[in-house]
Amino acid sequence: MSRTANAPRSPFIAPAWITVASIVGLVSALLGDGVFDVVSWLVFGSLIALFIRAWMKRERGR
Amino acid sequence: MQRSTLKAWFLVHKWTSLVCTVFLLLLCLTGLPLVFWEEIGHLTGADPDVAPAAVGAQPQNLDDLVNQALAKYPGDVPLFFGWDDHSPSVYVNTGARPDTPPPEMHTAILHQYTGEVLPAPQFNEGVMYFIYRLHTDVFVGLPGMLFLGAMALLFAVAIASGVVLYGPFMRKLSFGTLRTGRSRRLAWLDLHNVLGIVTLGWAFVVGITGAINTLAKPLEQAWQTEQLGEFATRYEGRPRPTTFASLDAAVATARAAEPGMTPAFVSFPGTGYSGDHHYGVFMHGNTPLTERLYRPVLIDVETGDVTARPQLPGYMTTLLLSQPLHFGDYGGIVLKVLWALLDLLTIAVLVSGLYLWFKRGSTEARVTEIERSGLTAEAGAAR
């Protein structure tokens, strides 16, 4: 039996992705310079962008 | 998840957070300027500007450089000699006795090619050193370090328990939900959740590596006892030499023994890093990873011969790798800026957590709130 389209997504999917991405970002710049640094910058920049996006889309009304 | 289980996790999150929050705020606030220690040093003149070496110039003899430093601090003995990887300068730590602790050491910074002693303040003085001590041991040495390490471990437990609570709370909500138009408390709770999850992996690693760094002294002592003690037994009963073989020759010997590496620093006999009868020439690689993984070459201080090239044990490698992962100083200025921003977001997580604690109701009401994703009557109540 396949999952239906309306099946709720696990709330842990986002934290899992964020954790994996953070580890990639932390390790990347340790492995080398140049492109390895850029990967780290992109990962951590994306995390901050995630918060900015949530703030921009915040629900202001009741 | 059963209500009783949820309540248990809530209590774990509440109490681990409460105990460590004030200390974590101290660590985050003092950690912020420490991320930019090098840049602040250049801006304030604490780190001297070092003129590049002239074309074709040869580095000065290392023994001469040490003697220059000793002339600046008469009566002192040499403790450590180190190279700056980013400028043609070297440093010499000296002290009244071989086991002088860092707060009592003197430091001379010299141009590696001209031998000039550069005007530079001591590393163990000034505002940045004050902030550093606040961050590492709150001025009480090892007990302070271990206490802050325990707080960092509590922080890691608080993060893990927070993730467990995040699941049921977000069950009916989209990722990144921020409801600022309802009650003020709900807005802070959503902010706490969003920021907590965004900084999750980074904060967990920085917290754990911080806890590992607080074990630096006990780990170094274990390494010295275990590995260096093995070589020390060969010299048992022999007094510590008073005249040393040439440092310049010792470093050249170490370079020949480890041709793919460069020297990072040298410990003199009696400093605790290489026993009483050896120079410890600590070699390292040239990538962000290998420049932090030292390979000690022990040179007999009387004969100038290589005694051993011991491999660092796993716990020392873990300690050395924990340092960059905690300080964020391995990916250029951009990574430092991002590190500082994540540090600021973590401060916001701590402050929002404190706010939520001050506005707390009963534990039962909070657990119900988590079960209902904050969709309770109180959540929508007036501010």
How would you sum up this structure, described in words?
- The complex is a heterodimer of chains A (62) and B (383).
- Chain A has 62 residues and is an all-alpha fold.
- Chain A has 2 helices and no strands.
- In chain A, helix 1 (13-31) runs antiparallel to helix 2 (35-56).
- The longest helix of chain A has 22 residues, at 35-56.
- The N and C termini of chain A lie far apart (40 Å).
- Chain B is α+β, with helices and mostly antiparallel strands and 383 residues long.
- In chain B, 52% of the residues lie in helices and 11% in strands.
- In chain B, strands 4-3-2-1-5-6-7-8 form an 8-stranded antiparallel sheet, with helices on one face.
- The longest helix of chain B has 33 residues, at 3-35.
- The model of chain B is unreliable at 377-383 (pLDDT under 50).
- The A-B interface holds A 8, 10-12, 14-15, 18-23, 25-26, 29-33, 36-37, 40-41, 44-45, 47-48, 50-51, 53-55, 57-62 and B 163, 166-171, 173, 175-182, 194-195, 197-202, 204-205, 287-289, 321, 324-325, 330-332, 334-335, 338-339, 341-342, 345, 380.
Mean pLDDT of chain A: 87
| N-C termini distance of chain A | 40 Å
Overall structural class of chain A, as computed from helix and strand content, comes to mainly alpha
Give me the secondary-structure category of chain B.
Answer: alpha+beta
Q: Tell me the helix content of chain B.
A: 40-55%
Report the uncertain regions of chain B. 377-383
Number of helices of chain A: 2
Order of helices and strands of chain B: HHHEEEEHHHHHHEEEEHHH
Beta-strand content bin of chain A: under 5%
Structure annotation, total helices of chain B: 12
What integer value in Å does the Rg of chain B equal?
26 Å
Strand order of the largest sheet of chain B: 4-3-2-1-5-6-7-8
The beta-strand count of chain B equals 8
Shape of chain A: elongated
- Biggest sheet record of chain B: 8 strands, antiparallel
